[in-house]
User: Which sequence fits this backbone?
């Protein structure tokens, strides 16, 4: 078994040779925010959509645009607003009175990397237009269905403090995001570097393409081969099941959890842990990979009760309690 793992590790290091140059290229523009940049790469590796939450001005949009530029992908930006229509996302059919036929005009969803900026500012009918694209990688316009070109990734941003004029995301859509990231302020040293690099009116740094899409698609196939021990698999299942039936794990959380994580959480946690190991250059998953990624994979999939809100307990508190309590293999 150790020989096989060594072979996988060698393959991971070869296929992942593009990761350090990619992170370095993004680091020219996105100062600090290592957590954000690594998670963006992780989402690309496992074909998973990401939801980015943070106050304005933390380089969320800049990071996504820079990622598209560094990987030579087609990039599309959608600015979500309350008056938006589904056709503004997926496209529509246009009638030609001369020929009497309808022609299809494709919307901005037809790209490799789609930035859904301030996604919670659009109403539910617009949010539902994204569901088919996010889950099935296809779009239906009229009676025609179009496959979306791989890689296809939706990276959505939302601001936590501006509640006026926003709509809560439907649970079905939130569950389709592989990870929900909490983007925080940079450190003082990073802030000082941002001042030196970005506080100018021209000649701002730009990223150059350093990765081809075919390298990324090959890396995805290698991620699937990363070894995961049965005990580690059981650990993932225990974490997810503990959000549904905490009493079975002797956790006093039953009255705080309204809705536990879905089976998508198990899949997301497994794939994201493998991608985390890939980025670290390993051909096997450790429990630490799971603990590193679990909060991002579960914070948006656990719904708390009114009692939890009264006690100022969040889904993050619940997930952290589970991670601190469950025995690690």
Assistant:
């Amino acid at each position: 078994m150790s020989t096989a793992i060594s072979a996988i590790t060698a393959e991971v290091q070869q296929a992942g040779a593009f990761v350090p140059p990619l992170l370095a290229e993004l680091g020219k523009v996105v100062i600090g925010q290592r957590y954000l940049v690594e998670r963006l790469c992780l989402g690309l590796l496992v074909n998973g959509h990401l939801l980015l939450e943070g106050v304005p001005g933390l380089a969320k949009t800049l990071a996504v645009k820079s990622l598209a530029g560094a990987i030579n992908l087609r990039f599309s930006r959608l600015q979500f607003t309350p008056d938006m229509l589904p056709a503004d996302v997926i496209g529509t059919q246009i009638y030609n009175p001369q020929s009497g036929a309808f022609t299809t005009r494709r919307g901005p969803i037809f790209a490799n990397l789609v930035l859904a900026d301030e996604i919670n500012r659009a109403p539910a009918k617009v949010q539902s237009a994204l569901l088919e694209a996010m889950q099935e990688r296809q779009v239906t316009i009229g009676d025609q269905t179009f496959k979306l070109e791989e890689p296809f990734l939706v990276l959505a941003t939302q601001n936590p403090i501006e509640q006026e004029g926003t709509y809560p995301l439907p649970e079905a859509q939130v569950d389709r995001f592989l990870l929900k990231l909490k983007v925080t302020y940079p450190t003082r040293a990073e802030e000082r570097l941002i001042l030196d690099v970005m506080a100018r009116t021209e000649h701002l740094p730009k990223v150059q393409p350093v990765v081809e899409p075919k390298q990324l698609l090959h890396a995805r196939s290698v991620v699937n081969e990363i070894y995961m021990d049965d005990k580690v698999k059981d650990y993932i299942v225990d974490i997810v099941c503990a959000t549904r039936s905490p009493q079975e794990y002797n956790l006093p959380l039953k009255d705080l959890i309204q809705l536990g994580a879905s089976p998508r959480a198990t899949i997301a946690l497994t794939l994201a842990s493998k991608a985390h190991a890939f980025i670290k250059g390993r051909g096997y998953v450790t429990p630490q990979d799971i603990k590193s990624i679990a909060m991002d994979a579960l914070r948006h999939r656990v719904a708390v009760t009114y009692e939890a809100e009264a006690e100022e307990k969040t889904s993050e508190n619940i997930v952290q309690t589970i991670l601190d309590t469950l025995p690690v293999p």
Observations:
- The longest helix spans residues 263-279.
- The first strand starts at residue 49 and ends at 53.
- The chain has a mean pLDDT of 86.
- The two ends are 18 Å apart (CA to CA).
